[in-house]
What does this fold into?
Amino acid sequence: MVCQACEKKLSKVACPEKWRDSKGDKQGESSGRKVNENKLLKGAKRYQPYNKKCKTCKQNLHQDGLYCQACAYAKG
It folds into this structure.
């Protein structure tokens, strides 16, 4: 049999789960976390490969930069 002082110590968990503690205060509501969600596709800043355009000729760029290959060569 364990004494009362030791019994109080044994009733507490050494490393409590924070996920369960925070989940308890939002009973009935969704926590906003989706299961099996792709984090790379969810983000607002997703890489758009053909989003940038050349400054002079407005041609789509395939890399980060200001000018396309032809305009960069012509400007020197």
Observations:
- The chain has a mean pLDDT of 78.
